[in-house]
């Protein structure tokens, strides 16, 4: 596993993580355990051996299967341009605890997704626009009275991203996914990749639609 920007020998695959585990205050949901599990999966699937035989022993950096994980939607490690990208996320919701009207959540939200409205008894309550919300969980962290609380935590899964001569941004699967669901999804992608890839083709080059891989 490598940190973003760190150089490594060409092995046939790469699992990169962001700096969330080094104390970044923006972590929504840590991907550290997942990164270790996915590294194990890639080793178990013998991706280096597979690529070696499909490239006549000449594995180049552009052949490598890349899995990139970020602990929040800021996505510093750039999962959108990886074969498989994972982003930790938290969905905020409004709980029963009274809102003090402190405005901390409104100030904190990078996406202007929260506003305060007046209640019938003269108090304030937050309203979240889920079309704008990026599920970073920062509003939940700053709410002093736990009016805002996490209603769901999970991982976003993005498939088929790459840079190179024909770049494309990854396609996101709907919803948030548990650790085990991510592992199962990656296993399916690896099987699809090993069945269809020829001459060092990336997963990203094989991928065009989600239902094609999960038929
Ligand atoms: S992706 Fe989020 S948690 Fe990871 S280093 Fe960037 S800001 Fe921090
Ligand atoms: S979770 Fe959504 S509403 Fe809360 S700070 Fe992040 S983007 Fe804004
Ligand atoms: S929801 Fe929480 S952070 Fe937002 S104004 Fe109310 S008490 Fe403050």
UniProtKB/TrEMBL annotation:
It comes from the Bacteria. InterPro entries: 4Fe4S_Fe-S-bd, 4Fe4S_Fe_S_CS, NO2/SO3_Rdtase_4Fe4S_dom, NO2/SO3_Rdtase_4Fe4S_sf. This is Putative dissimilatory sulfite/nitrite reductase 4Fe-4S subunit. Residues 90-119, 124-153 form the 4Fe-4S ferredoxin-type domain. One of its GO terms (molecular function) is 4 iron, 4 sulfur cluster binding. The keyword Iron applies. Keywords: 4Fe-4S, Iron, Iron-sulfur, Metal-binding. SUPFAM superfamilies: 4Fe-4S ferredoxins (SSF54862), Nitrite and sulphite reductase 4Fe-4S domain-like (SSF56014). The lineage of its organism: Bacteria, Pseudomonadati, Thermodesulfobacteriota, Desulfobacteria, Desulfobacterales.
């Amino acid at each position: 596993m490598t940190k973003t920007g760190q150089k490594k020998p060409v092995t046939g695959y790469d699992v990169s993580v962001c700096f969330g585990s080094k104390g970044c205050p923006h972590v929504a949901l840590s991907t550290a355990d997942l990164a270790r599990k996915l590294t194990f999966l890639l080793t178990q699937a013998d991706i280096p051996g597979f690529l070696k035989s499909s490239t006549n022993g000449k594995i180049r950096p552009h052949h490598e299967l890349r899995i990139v994980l970020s602990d929040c939607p800021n996505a510093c490690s750039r999962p959108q341009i990886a074969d498989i990208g994972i982003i930790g996320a938290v969905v905020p919701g409004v709980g029963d605890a009274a809102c003090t009207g402190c405005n901390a959540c409104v100030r904190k939200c990078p996406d202007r997704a929260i506003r305060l409205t007046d209640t019938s008894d003269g108090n304030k309550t937050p309203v979240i626009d889920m079309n704008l919300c990026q599920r970073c969980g920062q509003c939940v962290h700053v709410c002093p009275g736990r009016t805002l609380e996490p209603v769901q935590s999970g991982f976003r899964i993005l498939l088929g991203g790459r840079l190179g001569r024909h770049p494309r941004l990854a396609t996101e699967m709907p919803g948030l996914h548990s650790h085990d669901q991510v592992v199962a999804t990656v296993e399916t992608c690896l099987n699809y990749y090993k069945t269809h890839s020829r001459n060092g083709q990336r997963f990203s080059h094989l991928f065009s639609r989600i239902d094609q891989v999960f038929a």
